[in-house]
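W.,

You were right to be curious about this one. When I first looked at the sequence I had no strong expectations either way, so I just let the prediction run and decided to look at it fresh. Below is the sequence, 77 residues in total, followed by the output.
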Amino acid sequence: GLFLWLRMPENLDGDAMLPRALENNVAYVIGSAFYCDGSGKNTMRLNFSYPTHEQIDEGIRRLADVIKKEMIVASHA
């Protein structure tokens, strides 16, 4: 395949997190788009077919930064 499926902790919302990821210059496909029942908010699909290895490394670093911040916010909610 050309994609990775990422499942985050249940209390994280990839749909709500997408604008913050885009602000950090990284994008993904929201996982909830693949669920007919509205679930899957804590999932995302990542593509690795086009970017270079260096771009993938940088994208994962940026995405990890966004996820870490979301985890901190979620832990205080």
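Here's what jumped out at me. The radius of gyration is 12 Å. And, maybe more interesting for your project: DSSP finds two helices and three strands in the chain.

Coffee later to discuss?

I.
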